[in-house]
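Worked example 3. Consider a protein that binds flavin mononucleotide.
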Amino acid sequence: MTKDFWKQLPRPIIGLAPMDGYSDSAFRRVCKQVNPAIVTVTEFTSADGLHFSTTALMRKLAFHASEQPVIAQIFGKRVETFITATKVCEDMGFSGIDINMGCPAKKVVRSEHGVALRKNRDLACQLIEAVATNTRLPVSVKTRLGWTSGDDLVDFGVAVQNAGADMICIHARTYQEPYKVAPQYDRVYALKKAITIPVIGNGGIESLAQGHAYCGDLDGFYIGQASFGNPWVFAGEKPQRFRDRIPIIDQHAQYLFEAKGGYVGSREIRKHLLAYVKGIPGARSFKAALSQVESLSDIQTALRQIAETEDYYETHSTL
Ligand SMILES: Cc1cc2nc3c(=O)[nH]c(=O)nc-3n(C[C@H](O)[C@H](O)[C@H](O)COP(=O)(O)O)c2cc1C
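Given these inputs, the predicted complex is written out as structure tokens:
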């Protein structure tokens, strides 16, 4: 992969946003299956972890060739561990390195990682420069509008570009209002006008059509939470009937079991299953079963029963 990867991708660039606990290899694979043109990003991974406990973290970062181009996202604050982490990710075959400068989690901010780097621009730029000069891969930064406002976004974006980043993704909310408020894209448009590296928008996008509407003047957009239980968000259309969604859900479970084994896989798939059945008539009564699945056959049985319940509701609503 070359440094101009982000410049060369067809527009608009559409991606699955990095999400800890969600955007693992299994979920990235099903999203790619739904829309092979998307870019995906790993869950954020500690640069210190990759430096000090390389093997364990490499296991967490492992991906399948069908996910490419997949970008590894790292977080931290130490130049030397960022350099090791970058080399590990490059050797693993990732298509790019993304630096997390947006995570608002208390533990992360307390350690001066994630969005805390917005308060330490010198260090933020040193990290970008260290990563960019130690890899042939494209380097991107994902951040927020700012701490309490987007007042310094353009200055920060210019500094990020000058430090050697090849793309910047902006989650159009601040640190102080992390997820629930409406995104403010005006600030992101102003940044796009001020820099020459690609700018990707993110935040509050619930469909491809909305992504095109919000980010038409940008280089693309990432979708996050709207993909929970809904990888079809990347296809533009969701199969009408639950029965027709089952093959992808089954596939998701299989990939997860394959990657993490039955014990962890069965526990991690539960939250996804609950998201997949949200809004399906009659599915409420299967919540307990879905929250306790232990095997692929438990999952298949529950999904089949939910499809039969949906059929029943449909037949009876037309009588
Ligand atoms: C559960 C969860 C985990 C997240 N983990 C990460 C992460 O690891 N790295 C990151 O850059 N952003 C992370 N984010 C932020 C998302 O990438 C995205 O910026 C945010 O959810 C806004 O996009 P959305 O409104 O489409 O969800 C996470 C968000 C959620 C909800």
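Take a moment to read the result before moving on. The chain has a mean pLDDT of 96. The pocket of flavin mononucleotide is lined by residues 17-22, 43-44, 73, 100, 102-103, 142, 171, 202-205, 223-226 (CB under 6 Å).
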